Amino acid sequence: MECSWKTVLLLVCASLGVQYTAIRTLRDSLSGPCQGADHCQARHHRDSRWRALCGDNWLSVESSRKHILLFATTRSGSSFTGQLLNQHPGVFYVFEPLYHVQQAFTNSSSRLRRTLDRRALLGAYRDLLLNLYTCDLHFMENYIRPEPQDHVTGSFFRRSSSHALCSPPVCLEGGDGLATGQPDEIWCPKKCGNLNLTLASMSCLSREHVAIKTVRIPEVKDLRTLTEDPRLDLKIIHLVRDPRAILASRIMAFSDQFRAWKVWNATGRQPRYVDLSQITSTCKDMAASAETGLQRPAWLRGRYLLVRYEDLASNPEVKATEIYRFAGLDMEDRVRMWIVQNTNSNVSATADWNYRYSTTRDSRATADTWRLRLGFDIVRTVQNLCNDTLALLGYRPVQSAAELRNLSHSLVEPRTFQTVTW
Ligand SMILES: *[C@@H]1O[C@H](CO)[C@@H](O)[C@H](O)[C@H]1NC(C)=O
Ligand SMILES: *[C@@H]1O[C@H](CO)[C@@H](O)[C@H](O)[C@H]1NC(C)=O
Ligand SMILES: *[C@@H]1O[C@H](CO)[C@@H](O)[C@H](O)[C@H]1NC(C)=O
Ligand SMILES: *[C@@H]1O[C@H](CO)[C@@H](O)[C@H](O)[C@H]1NC(C)=O
Ligand SMILES: *[C@@H]1O[C@H](CO)[C@@H](O)[C@H](O)[C@H]1NC(C)=O
Ligand SMILES: *[C@@H]1O[C@H](CO)[C@@H](O)[C@H](O)[C@H]1NC(C)=O
Fold this sequence. Notes:
Elements: H1 2-34, H2 37-43, H3 49-56, E1 67-71, H4 78-86, E2 91-95, H5 98-106, H6 110-115, H7 118-133, E3 152-153, H8 175-180, H9 187-192, E4 195-196, H10 197-206, E5 209-214, H11 224-227, E6 234-240, H12 243-253, H13 259-267, H14 277-294, E7 304-308, H15 309-314, H16 316-327, H17 333-342, H18 347-356, H19 370-373, H20 376-385, H21 387-393, H22 401-405
Parallel strand pairs: 1-5, 1-6, 2-5, 6-7
Antiparallel strand pairs: 3-4
The structure holds 2-acetamido-2-deoxy-beta-D-glucopyranose (NAG) (6 copies).
One 2-acetamido-2-deoxy-beta-D-glucopyranose is lined by residues 103, 107, 145.
């Protein structure tokens, strides 16, 4: 027994040694071209090994390349928060690429969506994230519909949200949209034409970091294999928001889907057909992820930051600095400028931003408006469904309509979440 155990150990060591030598040799032989991003880009499509070795330097722990995931839920302020990351000139930002995966898998049939194998979908989500983090934008071609021709597509979801996808080298016309920092949905495809995914991959390789926003991953534990992947230095920014505010925002934004809630809000009577399951699972997922993070498991060490949107909205400079520090990025002047121009420090710019960028209506001024928009009966119901989530994240329940509408009474308890270091 002892002998075979030793043999196994010896074999394992020998094979690791061989692998290590092989990889070192390969890296040494590539080290010349790897020093210049341009060479890497030129070689990129001839040999896929270049991607891993040049782009990401996956064996090197010192590499400063960060892979940032803005992990959020629909209508939690993630577009705004994503734009904070998008402003950094070294960041390659992608807004909700998992949209294409979900579309391809479910093609808007809600029956299918419910019965779809959850594990398979999550696996496809993780695959896409890994490929984007290693700058293989071509991987998107598996999911984009209609299928891209010659690696070129006109259907990239919310392309305008990304500076990198609307400026050189991807788009030679893209210069001036950048100055305002306020993308709308049409200017970029109009100016830049269809998106060449080869150029997008090159742009990704030439930037120092990659940041991706998604609302489609249910729980942080679904990301565990990515946090453990040696090719990535994943930084998860978990953005949460008061579920009552999320619901109010969803009712306003998706009025067709939320017709029953509108009736409820208008009449004060709960229709029998109203669907409580969506907000319930939003609360459950949000709390489960926050609990996971607050338990500080080894696989999340240094990789998880819990951010309440309300704190960001009321104190954008301070919170943004905290987010940047956690992600390992320098707070550039351009980011500070953008904050000044897009939060309440500049009211007229806020109005402009809100108007032009319809998914982002919230800022310091509007973070509380849900309290005037939601009937007390609905609020009470959500408080019952989500009581644990509210308690965990520090959102106070209200006992009366008067308390709900009294905006000088804050519903956000001051909290510091120790989730970064342990
Ligand atoms: C979904 O399927 C329908 C018909 O089967 C098709 O017309 C539509 O383009 C598809 N949508 C996507 C996003 O693939
Ligand atoms: C996309 O960009 C690459 C790299 O510049 C170029 O070689 C290719 O011809 C472009 N594709 C199209 C269809 O223009
Ligand atoms: C406020 O926004 C306007 C319009 O975008 C801009 O011209 C002005 O410089 C901004 N003010 C500050 C203090 O940033
Ligand atoms: C709910 O009703 C109030 C009036 O009672 C209205 O002001 C508000 O806009 C409505 N909210 C939604 C989300 O429709
Ligand atoms: C939430 O409600 C459930 C069921 O009513 C109760 O058991 C639980 O203790 C409540 N949690 C908090 C934090 O109040
Ligand atoms: C509103 O809330 C503030 C702060 O809690 C309180 O001092 C004030 O009395 C409240 N006003 C009303 C009308 O209840």
